[in-house]
Amino acid sequence: MDLFADLWMGFSVAVSPINIAYLLIGAMVGMIVGIIPGFGPSAGLAILLPITFGMDPIGAVMMLAAIYYGSMYGGTITSILLNTPGESATVASTFDGFPLAQQGRAGPALVMQAVASFVGGTIGVIMITLLAPAFSQVARNFGPPEYFLLAIMGLLTLVVMIGANWRYGLISVLIGFALGTVGVDLETGQGRFTFGSAELIGGIDFIPIAIGLFGLGELYYAFYQGLHASGSGSIVQYSKQSRFWPEARDWVETRVTMFRASLLGFVVGVIPGAGATIASLMAYSVERSVSKTPEKFGKGAMAGLVGPESANNAASSGAMIPLLTLGIPGSASTAVLLAAFLLWGLRPGPLLMEQNPEFAWGLIASMYLGNMALLAINIFAIPLFVWLVKIPYRVLAPAVVVVCTIGTFSVHGSITETWLMFVAGIVGFFMRLFGYSPAALVLALVLGPLAEEALRQTLTISRGSFWIFLERPGSLWIIAITIGILLLVPLMQRLGRPPKLDAASGEED
Q1: Domain count of the chain?
Q2: Which of 342, 361, 373, 470 meets the CB 3.0–4.6 Å disulfide criterion with 10?
Q3: 102-127 pLDDT per residue, tens
């Protein structure tokens, strides 16, 4: 009963007119932050933090939190319509979101992503409300061995999911690992593959590579197909006959996906450092592995869009667990929120809910309201988003290049990263042309440095012994799950393989 009394108190704080106004402003700004490629919630929060000076602490944090999880909604819009992820957590949404738009299903895809985001975010907040103490204890027990095994599990899972072209996937992973080694070796202090460039000392950032591979790579491939010569063609197909609302089969096919991916995303989000990007990519891999038609993934499978969307929004909620209960930021964005807490003299940790219950529960209650507001905003704005697909390719393509360039440059103000984006676009074009996996490369680039650092820390702790991976319960669980995935996924793919279809008639042989 105390739990519901505390939550009711939180709602009484959150629904004040001024706090509702701050919440709506944050939701709208978050949408815009997510739409801008490469900007991301952490950069948006850092830039907008100074404007909250002098505001009421509860209203200010409600607004900043709405910007944080609102960007997850907005980042998918460009992923679906332009194949350009608004931020890293929506990269997986490009895999099937953009093919759906190309098939003339931009409206249903945007509706489904809005609903999936709402379900994921709401389940995440419910889990925060009910399970914060238990999950904070689990996250506290994770150390370098578990981080390393999680990274390897994610990479092995993705390679296995690729199926018959696993060799191309493995090569893509190795390229991503190689890019992840660029920069200064933190143990020896030696530069690796920097070629004398001071801007590469800190390594290659994820954002320019992702924008180049998925955004510009798709444009270059469209040029290769000759769409630039079309006078009226657009990047995606749309007509007056195109349906706005999803079909019944879309809801049926994804009803379990939303809940499964939301739970997975929340658990991954709780782990400090894992983040929504890894959660969305893992959810995509899981949905493809359990699907009866895995061959549709990457070609416009609604579950391939709904899964990552549910997961990244649930993960953004899960990242609040270590922040509120331990004072440990679970992601870059929650690190900025931690700075905001400290700015107002609030110290997150085990005593936060006891010493500042109005603040803690008001923030949690606002997340319920914020997800409802974002669902309404997304659905009502979908006609505007779908209208974008009718813009001629000759007009939209240069605009995409400009937006990608500005988005990449605005992250760190680096010309080098901007050039890296253009090079990554060329690489992305050839990867698509010859059947390699940009997703595997991106995942390896994200997980590679994490795996390397975690392995070194693990071997330092164990004095060079690999037995440490078998001595920790958490590591054993991850190893068992990884082995299960490696054994079960090929079997499920073989059992779930559909009958061959006659190319001419579309009927079964």
Answers
A1: 1
A2: 361
A3: 887 877 888 898 899 899 989 988 88
